[in-house]
């Protein structure tokens, strides 16, 4: 139910039909849908109405004990399975991303995620080994990308993570990465 110009200060509430439309769009998408895209699909409803529809859906899912909920991921909304079912899904798929990525790839990806934008030479200095093939593999999987060039001799490439990285690891933004201090404290 789109907002009308005269009721901008009144609380917004999504009707049941709109909630079902939001749910259908999210279920049909294999990528997070930004509020702007949902708004376009649903006839220019406001972001507040979409957020209310998501909140209503999540309340209904929780009330009925569903195994999923709608979360904000990588700048959009996506249906996500609850963490309680991680083991079941991992065994169903027989391999999680961590087991498909080599330890070298995971280490390189972590360095890029925490230090981006970063030069290949800096990654290699931290790891102590060459990482050309690992970088190429991570780029092929769309987990990292070239984000620019450094303002130094030779103008070497700078690497950073992608939206796909955020999606794969279930992060809304890089701010959601675990704090490095937590790793040092936890051993």
Could you characterize what this model shows?
By secondary structure, this protein is an alpha+beta fold. The protein has two domains: 79 residues, Winged helix-like DNA-binding domain superfamily/Winged helix DNA-binding domain (Arc Repressor Mutant, subunit A), CATH 1.10.10; 90 residues, Arc Repressor Mutant, subunit A (Orthogonal Bundle), CATH 1.10.10.10. It is 49% helix and 13% strand. It has ten helices and five strands. A three-stranded antiparallel β-sheet has the order 3-5-4. The chain has a two-stranded antiparallel ribbon with strand order 1-2. Strand 1 and strand 2 form a beta hairpin. Helix 1 packs across helix 3 and helix 6 packs across helix 8. It is elongated.
Give a concise summary.
The protein is α+β, with helices and mostly antiparallel strands. It has helices at residues 16-28, 35-41, 47-63, 86-93, 97-100, 103-115, 120-127, 132-140, 163-168, 180-186, and strands at 68-73, 76-81, 118-119, 144-149, 157-161. The chain folds into 2 domains: 5-83, Arc Repressor Mutant, subunit A (Orthogonal Bundle), CATH 1.10.10; 97-186, Orthogonal Bundle (Arc Repressor Mutant, subunit A), CATH 1.10.10.
């Amino acid at each position: 139910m789109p907002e009308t110009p005269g009721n901008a200060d009144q609380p917004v509430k999504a009707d049941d039909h709109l909630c079902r439309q939001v749910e259908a769009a999210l279920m049909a998408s294999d990528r997070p849908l930004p509020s702007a895209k949902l708004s376009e699909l649903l006839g220019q409803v406001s972001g507040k109405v979409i957020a209310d529809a998501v909140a209503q859906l999540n309340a209904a899912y929780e009330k009925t004990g569903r195994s999923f909920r709608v979360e904000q991921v990588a700048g959009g909304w996506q249906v996500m399975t609850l963490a309680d079912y991680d083991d079941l899904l991992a065994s169903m798929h027989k391999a999680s991303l961590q087991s498909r990525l080599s330890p070298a790839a995971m280490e390189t990806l972590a360095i890029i995620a925490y230090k981006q934008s970063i030069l290949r030479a800096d990654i290699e200095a931290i790891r102590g080994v060459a990482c050309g093939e690992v970088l190429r593999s991570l780029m092929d999987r769309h987990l990292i990308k070239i984000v620019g060039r450094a303002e130094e001799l030779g103008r070497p490439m700078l690497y950073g993570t992608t939206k796909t990285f955020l999606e794969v690891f279930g992060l809304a933004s890089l701010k959601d990465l675990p704090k490095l201090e937590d790793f040092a404290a936890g051993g």
